[in-house]
Design a protein that fits this description.
CATH class: Mainly Beta
Distance between the termini: 73 Å
CATH topology: Immunoglobulin-like
Oligomer: single chain
Number of helices: 1
Largest sheet: 5 strands, mixed
CATH superfamily: Immunoglobulins
Strand order of the largest sheet: 2-8-7-4-5
Number of domains: 1
CATH architecture: Sandwich
Low-confidence stretches: 1-17
Shape: elongated
Mean pLDDT: 82
Length: 137
């Protein structure tokens, strides 16, 4: 009971007194999410590997956000363009780790560069991270 009375007194003290009589409020702009600690797997692939000239792997990274992360965007430098994945299973989390599948062509020798970012429930896009997979002979 004593803790409750002390807490209630603190809350009331924090709300009262002084200040201006203006009723205007500044809208709160949610912060954009951030991502870091990118890991792309595999580290390399060979020409012709995978199924039908398409290899598969994973991307993993950490996130921090003030709203739910709802979409993961992956753009590659060659064939597939921007891939969009709906993110599930992390509602309510404000930080954590995301792992997602990636695809890449293995028909020719090249380096495939990927750019990753997330979008939160407020439509804010995160910073972008890039990684690559060299396709060798």
């Amino acid at each position: 009971m004593r803790k409750f009375i002390v807490l209630a007194a603190f809350v009331l003290a924090a709300c009262g007194g002084g200040g201006s009589s203006s009723n205007s409020t500044t809208p709160v702009v949610p912060a954009s999410p951030t991502i870091d600690n990118l890991a792309v797997s595999p580290l390399a692939a060979t020409v012709g590997s995978g199924s039908g000239g398409v290899g598969s792997g994973t991307v993993a990274f950490d996130f921090t956000s003030s709203a739910d992360i709802v979409t993961l965007k992956i753009n590659d430098s060659v064939d597939f363009g921007t891939q969009t994945f709906q993110v599930s299973g992390i509602a309510g989390l404000r930080s954590g780790h995301i792992t997602a599948p990636i695809r890449y062509p293995t028909t020719t020798r090249q380096t495939v560069t990927f750019t990753f970012w997330v979008v939160d429930a407020n439509g804010n896009s995160s910073n972008q991270l890039s990684g690559f997979i060299p396709i060798g002979g």
